[in-house]
Amino acid sequence: MQLNTKLNASITAVGGYVPEHRLLNKNLEQIVDTNDEWIQSRTGIKERRILKDPSKATSFLAIQASKNLISKNNIDPLTIDMVIVATTTPDMQIAATAAYVASEIGSYNAFGYDLQAACSGFLFAMSMASGKIESGRYKKVLVVGADKMSSVIDYKDRSTCILFGDGAGAVLFESNNEGLGWQDEYFKSNGDGRESLNVKAGGSLFPATSTTISNRDHYLRQDGRKVFKTAVSAMSDASSTILKRNNLVGEDIDYLVAHQANERIIESIAKRMSLKPSKVLKNIAKYGNTTAATIPLLLYDFQNKFKRGNKIIFAAFGGGFTWGAAYYIWSK
Ligand code: UT7
After folding, report:
1. Distance 224 CA to ligand 1 centre (A)
2. 261 in contact with ligand 1, CB cutoff 6 A
3. DSSP type of residue 3
4. Which tens digits make up the pLDDT trace of 56-73?
5. Cβ(88) – ligand 1 distance below 6 Å
């Protein structure tokens, strides 16, 4: 076999975790004016997982997913050089959640930081990890996508509370000298989108006051229709740019691993890429939108399906707006 001198970054281990508590559509029917039929037909979601214990935060989800990866793959946490936690619901302002996660999993030789790009966070974090591995300076980089979305969801707002759930997924990146792994990426952002999807208060623009609290400004709000339309066109455009740039057509792709925000969004992108339904991975029915955790939870749930050499397109869209697509060849 011919070995490349260029180092690629590839995923060598996968882990995941979702909390036990299942919030069903019929439970939401008791809280807001909605119904199972509407939720399933408009979003594809049947249930989501909720971290009920108020003393546990996003770090708990991230630690469980990381420990799952470490134990299943017999990894010595001391060999991990770097931990990136993609999250939009960090445990606290200022103190990086990743630093806490690294310590709690016993990765005392690693440094850690958080990456906030909402639902595109994990996709962007995989790119950061790949760059570090390709540089040759780091051997093992742990990338975690974790969000306790229930901490920012208004359970009085039927247009958002039906969509989101809590969860975490993790992958380990190491070098690959056979040309497999991370191949190409096309990432974009547009700050005009921040009016259409945000948690308005709690940052430096609107620090917490009694007014922000009484206005319920610490909860996620979005213009669903606008986000939907923009997500479909942005993810489709990014995916087709990646295909073209790598001389690929839909038929060449084995799997689409796309952010799980709405089943209709995923299906629209797949259609625009001319992908057969069997190539489109989905677990939104079980977990809803877990923000930075959707992509690693897909990798976790479907890891036994992937074969060495499979061509994968990752795609995501989220608050900011942020979005993009990446081309990846499975190496395990
Ligand atoms: O990851 C990035 C973050 N977010 C997303 O990607 C979400 C993108 N947007 C969406 O997924 C969809 O826009 C939603 C699922 C949020 C909404 O679906 P939609 O088909 O765009 O519905 P809509 O907002 O146009 O509302 C249609 C109707 C409205 O009633 P009227 O005005 O037609 O009488 C809503 O009030 O459905 C109503 N509605 C509901 N009805 C029952 C909105 N939410 C609900 C609900 N149950 N939960």
Report:
1. 6
2. yes
3. P
4. 999 999 999 999 999 999
5. no
For the segment 286-309, what is each residue's pLDDT rounded down to a tens digit? 999 999 999 999 999 999 999 999
- Taking CA atoms only, the protein residue closest to ligand 1 atom 23 is 225
CA dist., res. 286 & res. 300, Å (int): 13
120 lines ligand 1 (CB under 6 A): no
- CB of 42 closer than 6 angstroms to any ligand 1 atom: yes
DSSP string, 189-228: E-GGGGGTEEE-SSSSSS---HHHHHTTTTSEEE-HHHHH
Please state, as a whole number, how many other Cβ atoms lie within 10 Å of the Cβ of residue 187: 16
3-state SS, residue 258: strand
Q: Which domains does the chain carry?
A: 8-179 (3.40.47.10), 182-329 (3.40.47.10)
Measure the CA–CA gap between 170 and 181, rounded to whole angstroms.
16
CA distances from 171 to 29, 48, 58, 123, 125 (A): 36, 22, 17, 12, 11
* Atom 8 of ligand 1: nearest residue by CA position: 228
Distance 148 CA to ligand 1 centre (A): 22
Residue whose Cα lies nearest atom 46 of ligand 1: it is 34
